[in-house]
Amino acid sequence: IPAADLSEQISTAGTEASGTGNMKFMLNGALTIGTMDGANVEMAEEAGEENLFIFGMRVEDVEEMDKKGYCAKDYYDHIPELKQAIDQLSNGFFSPKQPDLFKDIVNMLMYHDRFKVFADYEAYIKCQEKVSALYKNSKEWTKKVIRNIGTSGKFSSDRTIAQYAREIWGVEPSRQKIPAPDDPRE
User: How far apart are CA 75 and CA 53, in angstroms?
Assistant: First the structure.
């Protein structure tokens, strides 16, 4: 995993879209900004939610929204900077030679977004402001990095493979040493 200061894991809570890449970033010192989804939940259990940048809906919020119904236009109409960004995508601001280039993206976000992106928008922006403020305080940023690295041992491949062997495949890991390719054969 390449070096990074911040790992973004911004899936909708309950979709399990967040895999283990963020754990690798954590092992290498990146802090995580994300929703309480997938591996972020496990990371928060180990490092403490206060050592990650968690934002947005939780699973129960998403379930409640599913009952009531999600309407992207409600967010579009009430969040001026979001409206501006969507309007700029719609009117070709970013692609003047191809004004319809982002039409499908806008259509999906406005009318077919099963991930409810706009519902987490304001929380994401506020959380990014916290990230920016903390990043300016290198001593406090470094403390969180150290806490994350120090609690990431659970995510080692040795532990994970042993757990999968027991829980998924129903076998015990072998302690037998496998000879290296250049070891003499008996």
Answer: 23
